């Protein structure tokens, strides 16, 4: 919505700036203080051509713009080297309302990406290993970026680059042949598989020869051994069943599963292309691409025993995504410990002559850890499982909600701002189970996404599950409070903005409107920077602005002249919070 207003004003400014309207649009800023207007544009770049001080230029442009009588503008003020635009309160509320009514769940969405596609690789766990808290970041950040891309009109292909190939499968197959009968594969297939994986590495510490035998077994698998391939497929099927269960709980979806094994038939072609470019050289028996001129270690393409490596498969994967899936952007949501690996892969792609190499992006993120837990190791079985984390969170939230209901907390109709009483007394046992899962999983997801992805995250149970402060449950509560007010109002809101709605002019009302105006821009910036925390932080801003408004005004049963307008403002707030939570992949319950 704000984009349309900016574009309207920008058209009137093109003559002054002597640049295309698209470039004028990019100059606009949103002032932090409402006293500086809803929009501002700097004029410093005109100082040289006009040979005047910026304040004088701002004054001239302001006077000229005032003569144009743009319907949305209440007043225009020159302040220093800026022209500040104050928009009409009645216009803003009307435009917000009609935008929400017209677009519904797609409010704030843009079509800038129409006709273009994004392939995004996220979650992508390894076969035979349980998903642990380390996978949580790749999963929830990836899904949120996927959702942000969709808000910009892109066609998105969510890709599961399953870790289903490599020497570990030779080791796993060897372990299964030796000790598989000792484990209850029929009753507990995935647990048995993981225990077998851990056991192999325990045994290999005593007998290093096992490592060599595991590598040889994988080489036989790569060469097409039918028995090993059948065993490998069994391992993949067992693992995918467990992974699908975890993704379903988190609301995560993929469009394609293209594990590393998918690229086996493409590796020779990739190696030949590298060799034809004169890039492939021998190093200690292995074949590599020398990257010394970029101060990087060589990129290993093929091991001395002929087995392929991660880099080879990732190069083949990039070619597949860009050439066959016709991606305009190729995104890898993978931890920052793989930064060097992706720099090497992208460098090889550039040297191979692929002009699209710079449209491949590694979306890195920091580590996820518990303050009281040591370093995780899947080889030693020392991991904090994602499933255990979710179960514990649900148990804690359910206990809290059950106690509140038992004490008769809330009526579902009071406007008292208690974050734990919105409809609590009306909740059934079934509601508690359902809502506890929505709140707990939302808490875990938001606790991750509120952080800038490039930073490490220390998990704090108390902070994550808090119903107050910067948390997922707090946002869900504000949504519930908005819903409760609308339910109490009881009347259906009209499709068209009602003429009888009065302009909202108090400081807290105008501040909330100004905050809601930013939603479309927040979605845009969140995707452009691949940072879901921009949206997460914004939703906290909306909630804070709403609570100030809520504190200052009695919405229902107060000043009758403003009741409808205030209810409309509550409605817009609810839709923006619900829409933003949806993009973050967090559910918005109606009672808590």
What structural keywords apply?
single chain, 592 residues, alpha/beta, Gyrase A, domain 2, Rossmann fold, Isoleucyl-tRNA Synthetase, Domain 1, 3 domains, five-stranded parallel beta sheet, three-stranded antiparallel beta sheet, 21 helices, 10% strand, flat
Protein architecture, described:
The protein has 592 residues and is of the alpha/beta class. The chain has three domains: 2-87, Gyrase A, domain 2 (2-Layer Sandwich), CATH 3.30.1360; 122-370, 3-Layer(aba) Sandwich (Rossmann fold), CATH 3.40.50; 386-583, Isoleucyl-tRNA Synthetase, Domain 1 (Orthogonal Bundle). The protein contains 21 helices and 13 strands. The strands form four sheets. The protein has a five-stranded parallel beta sheet with strand order 6-5-4-10-11, with helices on both faces. A hairpin with a 2-residue loop joins strand 7 (280-283) and strand 8. Helix 5 crosses helix 18 (507-517). The longest helix has 25 residues, at 226-250.
Main beta-sheet strand count, sense and barrel state = 5 strands, parallel
- In terms of DSSP E residues, the strand content is 5-15%
Distance between the termini: 31 Å
Extract low-pLDDT stretches: 374-379, 410-421
Radius of gyration: 28 Å
Helicity range:
40-55%
């Amino acid at each position: 919505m704000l984009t349309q207003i900016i574009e309207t004003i920008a058209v009137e400014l093109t003559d002054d700036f002597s640049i295309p309207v698209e470039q004028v649009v990019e100059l606009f800023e949103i002032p932090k203080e409402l006293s500086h207007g809803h929009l501002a544009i700097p004029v410093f770049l005109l100082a040289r051509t006009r040979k005047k001080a910026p304040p004088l230029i701002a004054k001239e442009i302001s006077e000229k713009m005032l003569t144009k009588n743009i319907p949305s503008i209440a007043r225009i003020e020159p302040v220093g080297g800026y022209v500040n635009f104050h928009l009409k309160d009645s216009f803003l509320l009307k435009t917000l309302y009609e935008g929400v009514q017209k677009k519904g769940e797609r409010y704030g969405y843009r079509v800038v990406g129409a006709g273009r596609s994004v392939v995004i690789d996220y979650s992508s766990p390894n076969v035979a290993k349980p998903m642990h808290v380390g996978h949580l970041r790749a999963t929830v950040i990836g899904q949120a970026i996927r959702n942000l891309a969709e808000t910009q009109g892109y066609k998105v292909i969510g890709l599961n680059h399953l870790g289903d190939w490599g020497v570990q499968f030779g080791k796993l197959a060897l372990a299964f042949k030796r000790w598989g009968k000792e484990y209850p594969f029929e009753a507990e297939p995935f647990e048995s598989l993981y225990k077998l994986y851990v056991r192999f590495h325990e045994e290999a510490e005593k007998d290093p020869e096992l490592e060599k035998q595991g590598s040889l077994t994988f080489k036989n698998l790569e060469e097409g051994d039918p028995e090993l391939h059948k065993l490998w497929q069994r391992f993949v099927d067992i693992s995918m069943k467990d992974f699908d269960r975890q993704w379903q709980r988190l609301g995560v979806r993929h469009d394609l599963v293209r594990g590393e094994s998918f690229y086996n038939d493409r590796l020779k072609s990739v190696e030949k292309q590298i060799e034809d470019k004169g890039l492939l050289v021998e190093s200690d028996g292995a074949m590599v691409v020398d990257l010394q001129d970029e101060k990087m270690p060589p990129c290993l393409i093929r091991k001395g025993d002929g087995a392929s490596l991660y880099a080879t498969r990732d190069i083949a994967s990039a070619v597949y995504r860009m050439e066959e899936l016709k991606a305009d952007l190729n995104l890898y949501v993978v931890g920052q410990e793989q930064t060097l690996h992706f720099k090497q892969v992208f460098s090889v792609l550039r040297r191979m002559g692929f002009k699209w190499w710079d449209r491949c992006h590694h979306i890195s993120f920091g580590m996820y850890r518990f303050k009281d837990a040591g370093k995780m190791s899947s080889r030693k079985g020392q991991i904090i499982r994602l499933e255990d984390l979710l179960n514990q969170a649900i148990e804690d939230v359910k206990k809290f909600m059950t106690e509140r209901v038992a004490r008769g907390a809330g009526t579902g109709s009071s406007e008292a701002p208690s974050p734990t009483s919105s409809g609590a007394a009306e909740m059934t046992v079934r509601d508690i189970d359902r809502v506890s899962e929505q709140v707990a999983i939302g808490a875990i997801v938001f606790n991750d996404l509120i952080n800038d992805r490039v930073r490490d995250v220390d998990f704090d149970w108390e902070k994550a599950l808090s119903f107050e402060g910067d948390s997922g449950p707090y946002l869900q509560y504000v949504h519930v409070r908005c819903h409760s007010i609308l339910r109490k109002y009881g009347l259906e809101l009209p499709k068209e903005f009602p003429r009888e709605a009065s302009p909202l002019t108090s400081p807290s009302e105008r501040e909330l409107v100004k905050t809601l105006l930013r939603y479309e821009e927040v979605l845009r910036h969140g995707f452009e920077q691949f940072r879901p925390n921009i949206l997460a932080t914004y939703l906290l801003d909306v909630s804070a602005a709403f609570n100030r408004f809520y504190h200052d005004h009695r919405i229902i049963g107060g000043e009758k002249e403003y009741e409808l307008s205030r209810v409309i403002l509550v409605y817009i707030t609810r839709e923006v919070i619900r829409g933003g939570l949806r993009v973050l992949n967090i559910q918005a319950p109606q009672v808590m």
